[in-house]
Amino acid sequence: MQAWQVHENGEPGEVMRLVDVEPPTPADGQVLLRVRAANINFPDALLCRGQYQVRPPLPFTPGVEICGETEDGRRVLANPVLPHGGFAEYALADARALLPAPDSLDDAEAAALHIGYQTGWFGLHRRARLEAGETLLVHAAAGGVGSAAVQLGKAAGATVIGVVGGADKAAVARGVGCDVVVDRRAEDVVAAVKEATGGRGADVIYDPVGGAAYTQSAKLAAFEGRIVVVGFASGTIPSPALNHALVKNYAILGLHWGLYNTKNPELVRRCHEELTELAARGAIKPLVSERVPLTEAAHAVQRVADGVTTGRVAVVLEKGAAA
Fold first, then answer.
1. I need a surface site. Which of 31, 62, 176, 267 has the fewest CB within 10 A?
2. Quick one: which of 210, 206, 215 has its CA closest to 231?
3. What is the pTM assigned to this prediction?
4. 221: helix, coil or strand?
5. 34 near 89, Cβ under 8 Å?
6. Is the distance from CB of 142 to CB of 149 less than 8 angstroms?
7. Which regions of the chain does DSSP assign to beta strands (E)?
8. Region of residue 217 (phi > 0: left; psi between -120 and 50: alpha; otherwise: beta)
9. What is the pLDDT of residues 201-243, one digit of tens each?
10. What's the distance, Cα to Cα, between the start and end of the chain in Å?
């Protein structure tokens, strides 16, 4: 089979190599899946750089989120077991963690429903307890993680403000449902959000960016606001001023979605059922901006790493791919 492998750490476009290898052999409790589509996530770039919290042995195949097919023909969602990731014709997965792919979504959309939307659901509902009528601020609202949070916020009855970088991304953010869009390249984010909220700020702030975005979040948290720390796509991990959180009476909530797979897997399944229902009635729909063949995966991962994409980029494999 064909698979992308990383033999040394570095930028994805430089260290990912397409090679011919034997399909991996499942261990006890694992299944071999034919990859139908693999969604590209920012952690894939971090894996290539050796900067992710999980560091698989070299060489490894990145790709942490797929829509795959079982031997009996079922479409499923899975997080492949590294080092046998999803940017390949076949991948390994934990048999107990497979989730049924929603019938309302195609392979690329289904692959994109998993990590980003689960993270959004857990962040907004489990951690921040977002309520209808509240104001939600989403950083990087045109990206894969951000656009999922925007849609989930709207589905929950919130007013959603999206922060983006550039006019093209502003148009995407409006398209996925933002009530207000702030272009950080052309506007003062703090001033614009305060104007939009009558000076009150946001009840819930969803931050996958870190760095300067977190500094803005702290200034924009409303009374009893909740800042959900999802990631650090900016590359800068902020150091919160806890005295500021005390004085303004807001909460800082960390979210590592992957922990729920071991700490509370039943909640992951319940979340998936709710996401499937929301997708079936059209309340959410993953924004897949690009579909690329397996041969273009390295270039696509690099583009995601560089922050020049919107929504999700999916690697889509032909059905005839063989071992």
1. 267
2. 210
3. 0.93
4. strand
5. yes
6. no
7. 2-6, 16-20, 30-39, 66-69, 75-78, 90-94, 99-100, 135-139, 159-164, 180-183, 202-207, 221-229, 251-254, 288-292, 312-316
8. alpha
9. 999 999 999 999 999 999 999 999 999 999 998 889 999 999 9
10. 4
